[in-house]
Structure formats: C-alpha cells, structure tokens
C-alpha cells in the first residue's frame, strides 16, 4: 500500500484577479458617468470681484455696529421697525469675519425677540 501523500491546496488566485478586474471596470465606468466640461469653456473668475453685502441685508461690523443699505442702525429692534411684516419673516444678516461669535448670537437673539422669523447668516464660501 502506498502512503497517503500530502495534498497541496492551490490558492484561488484566478478568482481574486477576476474580482479586482471587475472592481477596476466598475470604477472606470462610474468615474465617467458625469459629462466632462467642454475644453473651450472658460469659467468665471471671482478673484477680482469686490466682496459686497447683498443690498437687503443687515450688516454687522467687527465692532458690533449695525448698518442697513449703507445707513447706521442703532439696535436690532429699530432695524425691524423699518421692515413690513412680510420682510420680517426672513432676515438676512452679514457678519464681519472679525465679529465675536457671542456678539453675533446676542444680535440674532435680539432680532428673534423683536419679532423676526427666520434668520439667515450670509457667509463666504471658499472654494480652494
């Protein structure tokens, strides 16, 4: 009788190669689903534009001073007194970058207490 030899197990490398290949094909197809931009298209450059607040917003300066359409406003309550009911439903405020966060929150709370509806903070979005 022959002695039982050790059987060698082969690793399923072919199956692993097939899976990797299928993943490669999947990512190639998924990456090309979005239409590429036309090469002759030139996007708008916003680098040289002046950063100005929208005209119908309450601007809060770094020292806490309020202004609306270029005119100084004494308090958030006096600002709301100049608006009609439909404009009070949604208030946009533009705080300066150097304004302390606590002061911004205090002004927003004063606006809500005076009857403002929804308060939106307009910020700059950096796309780098």
TrEMBL record:
It is found in: Cell membrane. Its main location: membrane. Keywords: Cell membrane, Membrane, Protein transport, Transmembrane, Transmembrane helix, Transport. GO terms for biological process: protein transport. InterPro entries: ExbD. One of its GO terms (molecular function) is transmembrane transporter activity. The chain crosses the membrane at residues 12-34. This is Biopolymer transporter ExbD. GO terms for cellular component: plasma membrane. The keyword Transcription regulation does not apply.
């Amino acid at each position: 009788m022959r002695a039982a030899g050790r059987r060698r197990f082969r690793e399923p490398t072919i199956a692993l190669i097939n899976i990797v290949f299928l993943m490669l094909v999947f990512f190639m197809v998924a990456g090309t689903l979005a239409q590429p931009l036309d090469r002759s298209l030139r996007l708008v450059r916003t680098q040289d534009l002046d950063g100005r607040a929208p005209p119908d917003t309450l601007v809060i300066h770094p020292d806490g001073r309020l202004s609306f359409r270029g005119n100084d406003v004494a308090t958030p309550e006096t600002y709301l007194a100049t608006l009609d009911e439909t404009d009070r439903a949604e208030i946009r405020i533009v705080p300066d970058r150097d304004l302390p966060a606590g002061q911004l929150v205090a002004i927003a709370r004063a606006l809500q207490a005076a009857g403002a509806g929804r308060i939106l903070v307009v910020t700059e979005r950096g796309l780098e």
